[in-house]
Amino acid sequence: METRTQVGIIGAGPAGLVLAHLLRARGIDCVVLERQSRSYVEARIRAGVLEHGTVDLLTSLGLADRLHRERMVHHGIELLFERSAHRIPLTELAGREITIYGQHEVVKDLIAAWGGPLHFSVSDVSLSDLSFAPTISYVDASGVSQVLRCDVIAGCDGFHGVSRAAIPADVLRVHQRDYPHAWLGILAQAPPSSEELIYAHSPRGFALHSMRSPTVTRMYLQVRPDEDLAEWPDERIWAELRARLDRSDAGWSLADGPILERSVAAMRSFVVSPMQYGRLFLAGDAAHIVPPTGAKGLNLAVADVKVLADALSSFYATGDSAGLDAYSETCLRRVWRVQHFSWWMTSMLHPTGDDPFDLELQLSQLRYVTSSRAAATSLAENYVGFPFP
Ligand code: APR
Ligand code: PHB
User: Fold this and answer.
1) Ligand closest to CA 12
2) Helix axes 327-349, 356-369, angle to 10 degrees
3) Sign, CA torsion 130/132/136/137
4) Which parts of the chain have pLDDT scores under 70?
5) What is the DSSP string of 61-93?
6) How far is the CA of 155 from the centre of ligand 1 (A)?
């Protein structure tokens, strides 16, 4: 079977789905291909912090009604170290807020609102002829071989996708840094124990208190990259969270509850350049991975596809390919800013345990960023996100 479209999108994660909606809003045809089933994609628990700009974009596309009804809006975060908590007033310092709303909720809303062609459970996806007549071959959910002819392909298939591998190795430059720790994450049926997120630096390791709703919390513990979840029964998880979130101000206690989901995620910084090759354009995790400490993964994916949709829109409207030609360069400016911020937050908040010099540097950075308005403002403006280009 052979079909044709203007933009072939591989991957129905935040990058692919936001791009599809942006293109449709501009009258550009596209087809989305997804390897997993709809239920799998919608149930995949990931992060949950949306930048101001991401919410504005989803709102402008008419995709944020449920988000606005159910979200939690935060105007600050807490940094907890040496058993004392320090608030960073994000909105006061950077004039913008953050939104707490699960990534899988965003994905659910985008799929529910998408009336166009979206094929789940496809397999054997391969890309060819990326220079002149880009083509995606795949097998659809009913086992039929398909060929999708496109003007351009958007590789939104994440870190483990096929798109990045379609770019010749001698063309692609890979920048990578792996961190000597991972995050053990839980979703728990427990009310949040604080109004805002708590990023905790303790001698026992990092911990993060986040949330999803007034009855569901999301928490993370710094663990070894090869940590075995089987060694972490519920009581041990709660005991460790209590120890790392321990603070001197009386009256604070951590509410616990049944753990609904748990996972261990490696921490790495990863960037490829260029993010385009011929008529193939990479976006989101297909091109870059950030450690989760800066809460940037989803937001950076949205920033990429905003650039791509604007470039495609002017290309189709005027034939002007300047935006497309500069796609990689434009995206990488923001990618490296976000990489730096995520590396900086990770380095400041994750004790490595074996180097007292490092520990003193971390504590000095934490004392500085919580006592200098200039330093706190720098953190705040990076955390809430810079306006989209
Ligand atoms: N064919 C079709 N679909 C594929 C293929 C393939 N060969 N390989 C992967 N996919 C799909 C995955 O199943 C996934 O649904 O591509 C999608 C990629 O989505 P994400 O991994 O969510 O990546 P992205 O859309 O770039 O969003 C980045 O998601 O993972 C979080 O922390 C990350 O927040 C970041 C955000
Ligand atoms: C989350 O709520 O899942 C979350 C929040 C902040 C982070 C990472 C994840 O830095």
Assistant:
1) 1
2) 110
3) negative
4) none
5) TT--HHHHHH-EEES-EEEEETTEEEEE-HHHH
6) 9
